Amino acid sequence: MATTFDSSSINNNCNLSNNTIGKLPEESSVLVVGAGGIGCELLKSLALCRFRSIGVIDLDTIEVSNLNRQFLFRREHVGQPKATVACDSIRRLCPSIHIEPFHGDVITDSRFDVSFYKQYDLVINALDNVQARQHVNRMCLLCSRPLIDSGSTGYNGQATLIFKGRTQCYDCIEKPKQQRTYAVCTIRNTPSQPIHCIVWAKFLYNQLFGDNEDPNNEDVTPDADDPENVNNEQDNPINGHHRVSTRDWIHSEMEKFDPKRIFNKLFFDDINYLTTMKNLWEKRRQPIPIEYEKACQIKEYHQNGQGDHGQSTMPKLNDQRIQTISDYVQMFIDSVNELKQRSDKQRQIASTSKEPSFLVWDKNDDADLRFVTASANLRAYIFGINLTSKFDVKSMAGNIIPAVATTNAIVAGITVLQARKVLSILPRLSTDHTLTSIKHLTNVFVSTDRKTGGIIQSIPLEEPNSSCIQCSDLEQPVRVRINMSLFTLYSLYERLIRKHLKMNKPDVIIADGSGRILISADDDDEDEQMMLKTLDQFKLINGTILLCEEEYDDETNEALLQHMKIKLMLEHTDTITDKDEYIIVDDQVIGEIKQIKQSLKRKLSDHDDDDDDDDDDHIQHLDDYQNEVNIVKRTKRLSTTPNEHNTNINTGPIHTSFVMLVDDEVPVHTNGHHEGTSKDDFIINTKKHKQNNDDNFVSNDSNSCVILDDDDKTNSKPVTNTEQNANVADDDCYCVDIADS
Amino acid sequence: MNSNQTSMLTDEEATLYDRQIRLWGADAQLKLRQTRLLLINVNSLSIEVCKNLCLAGVASITVFDNTRVTLDDIKENLTLTMSSTDINEFKSVCTCRTLQQLNPRVQLIAESNMTIDQIDEKYIEQFNYVCLFNYYDFSIISHINKLCREQQHIDENEKKQIYFFCAATFGLYGFVFKDLGDKYDYLSENSVGSESLIKGEGGNETKKSEKITTKSTRNFITFDKALSTEWKPNRRQATTRSAIITYNLLRALLTFYEQYHRAPALVTQDVDVPNFMKIIHEKITSSTAAASSSNSIDTEEFNEELVKDILTDNNAVASIVGGIMSHDIVKAISKQEPKDNFFFFNGLACVGLSIPIAC
């Protein structure tokens, strides 16, 4: 057996290229976000490939269904935090490694701020959800750290590279909608597929036990306003008056909470009511209401119609069996009782702690799953729809993404190869994180189920989308710290946006891809109740970016319709206890903006501590962050005092991030001058600019352009589109096959 | 439930294997539970395969290796299963001990007494799959491959087949070869309409895309036969270039073994590297000439550094190639449509291709 190539290795630098200036795994520190399927494989491969300093963030605790692939965990670890157990396992495997677990939510936990990310040379996402990925993407853009985003679903996976300003960021391309939505009427009145009943059952769960404050919490009561029902209105006496919604009905029933009454209300009374909407059933099979006592008698197996999959083969799991209606009745009653008890308990806990007072549906909870399975199947039976096994309900209701160790292992292996390539282009001895050439690098896609050809494929990196709200360089957000659970929408709008940022009446849009409008400029009378709600009630989270956008009508010149945009990044902190208090992290920048606003032509003063009369009493200046602000103003730089609070290896300044921009319609010369703008509007050139490595770049232009740059070593200059493209083409000619180059 | 032991999965298994059952189905999970594997040689790659299949829940894995852990093995801390406390212990024993903890349902057996030439029909009979790792003695590979083939003939009536896999990783490169017999029957599922079968999202509507299941057969060939003639890709070179490099390295490793009766190794790198480099260059020039293409493969690329790198074990590559191979084995177990007989991985380009050679 002497013929093996096993681990008797001496050499430890697998040279990926003849690059000797890059960082070695041993000398770099990596942050891994997520210690799940890919995370476990990733940590193992990083450790075995001699990475010696790793941070691991994970929010979850270990579950039995993780054990088939998350091999750093064993049965005795079930219930413990993933981050901690994963790190313990890796340390056992590799005692010399420095690996630190962080059990917490990467989005909301205030430990994970900019300075936290700056401790690492490279960040790797091994996450399973879009929201957390977007957040880490934003943080990496903010502190100019390279990010590798890895992911897998079933047999497919990918590892993509994100370098600020050099490649597409996670948000450069709009993500397809994660969840399918169904018409409300279909769910409430006319279900025709099992999924409609399952969605209804989940709504019902929220009505009974969930968050009653949640505006997204859909009603499950029959809806008399169904467009199909309109013609019927006159003939139908019941339609005249409002029916009590299930929510209100439940509230009135809470005292004498009786599962049988609930059963009859949902599956008998409501269905009877539905049948009165005659128009709905002209072309549909009319639902047949069932009463509790009768339903208990239905003991035969409900025959699913033809075309149902799985009929030909015998089920191999208990949960794959379709049960009798009487079974589902029992399952309904039992689960309702169980959840009612749990719900009461939760309310008790909530009265003395910060815990929520309601239940949140969880696919891994058996009672939750039984409730949805039973409710959905009872409704399906009533509407003559095929029944669905508990196993399948779990998939459909829980949006379960199937996962297997092999795909994760492949993706993790590729990610580690990518990580080494990324490190090899990071300057070794310098603390600055400017990347050298990225032309060797590719995004990698895996499709293990392909029969032939490219199972693992490399795709050239794509250039950033210049209109991407997250990464386009000049559109950095103004960062503001607030306590999300205290700060109200009113404070946000009146104090922060209108008073402080001097906007008049902007639209405020949530830039999370959903395009939700928080405040509309067209809304004349704001809902006072709405305005007094705290931001967390709008499901805004740490790192949310708000886009405040306003149109100016210049009355003297109608052609000059202008846009002003400010991006606002909300950062949550628990340390603020005053409900109106906020901290502008880069307030200095705001000061600069104000100056520009006052006099566009006036030369900017060289000192940065101009007093501002408008300063709000609530604003607290952060000295630390003042130091971090690095403004490149033409050739002159303001306030680049050394960064003292950040004593680790990365001493590069944290950067200012702000921008206001005007629309492209405003004539802007490439030298930065602009013309024909009204005096009250401040304009900052937002034409694409390119980072220029020439430190001594001097612009001849004197007045109109301020560019706040992120990079110590980099000046910025506005260039035209064509210039930029030409430059990029020069610097990085992408190629697919590296062996080729 | 006891009476159903072989035809049903228990609730506990259903919970444990939930996420993969949703991927490959309960039938495949049942078949996995009846599969017995032999893995020959312990290295990063075989440990990865063993780990994956152990997690997946096969019946048993026999780890065949009679060498002991040396200081060199653990000095660089390169493997999942061997640490400094294991010096002088059999590699197979520590591998089984460590991986057993991942899944107590799988029977892990360490075979540390036998040598590879002692493997005969009798021994091989007990397995469904035989996998050979980082082994470059052509005659032994062919011999084991042949033993698996002969079983197919002996047990034709019972339809007992032993599938043969041979795989290796070298530096940033790796390959997987499989021989699933003369007549591999499988069910190919062609979904009419969308590809949304695996979609975990809300896409699971009742009108699932209709599946048409057809019985198909594919013929595989032995390692011997697959390598008896030079591979001349008929596709455009660009798509296969990264694979050709790996292919040539594999041939170079086989040739080296033939000439020096051992594989090149880092311990003997002073003599091995120059010799091995010479063979690589011969292989590459002959292959470029054969493909009659412009000199797109630069032989200069294989300098001393890179050749040395080829002699090292890289866990990331083992993780990738091991993942592909484990997936192939699961597919064969559940009688799904197989990939081509060769898979080549090139970590420099980060490209992995499934390619049919002489098959």
UniProtKB/TrEMBL annotation, chain A:
Pathway recorded for this protein: Protein modification; protein sumoylation
GO-annotated biological processes: protein sumoylation
Ubiquitin/SUMO-activating enzyme ubiquitin-like domain span: 480-563
Entry keyword Nucleotide-binding: yes
One GO MF term attached to the UniProt entry: metal ion binding
Entry's Gene Ontology cellular component terms: cytoplasm; SUMO activating enzyme complex
Keyword Disulfide bond in record: no
Chain intervals with Acidic residues compositional bias: 214-228, 607-617
Family: Belongs to the ubiquitin-activating E1 family.
Record-given protein name: SUMO-activating enzyme subunit
Species the sequence originates in: Rotaria sordida
TrEMBL record, chain B:
Any one Gene Ontology cellular component term annotated for this protein: SUMO activating enzyme complex
A Gene Ontology BP annotation from the UniProt entry: protein sumoylation
Subunit structure: Heterodimer of SAE1 and UBA2/SAE2. The heterodimer corresponds to the two domains that are encoded on a single polypeptide chain in ubiquitin-activating enzyme E1. Interacts with UBE2I.
Top-level taxon of the source organism: Eukaryota
Organism: Rotaria sordida
All copies of domain THIF-type NAD/FAD binding fold, residue ranges: 17-347
Pathway given in the UniProt record: Protein modification; protein sumoylation
Location(s), subcellular: Nucleus
Chief localisation class: nucleus
Protein name: SUMO-activating enzyme subunit 1
SUPFAM superfamilies: Activating enzymes of the ubiquitin-like proteins
Family: Belongs to the ubiquitin-activating E1 family.
Pfam annotation, one family: ThiF
Keyword annotations from UniProtKB, A to Z: Nucleus, Ubl conjugation pathway
UniProt GO molecular function: SUMO activating enzyme activity
Keyword Nucleus: yes
Keyword Magnesium: no
